Amino acid sequence: VTTDALTFDQKTGDLLVLDRANKRIVRWSATGTLLAQYFNESFANAGAIATSSDGTELITTQPEAVSFWKI
Question: The pTM is what?
Answer without folding.
Answer: 0.86
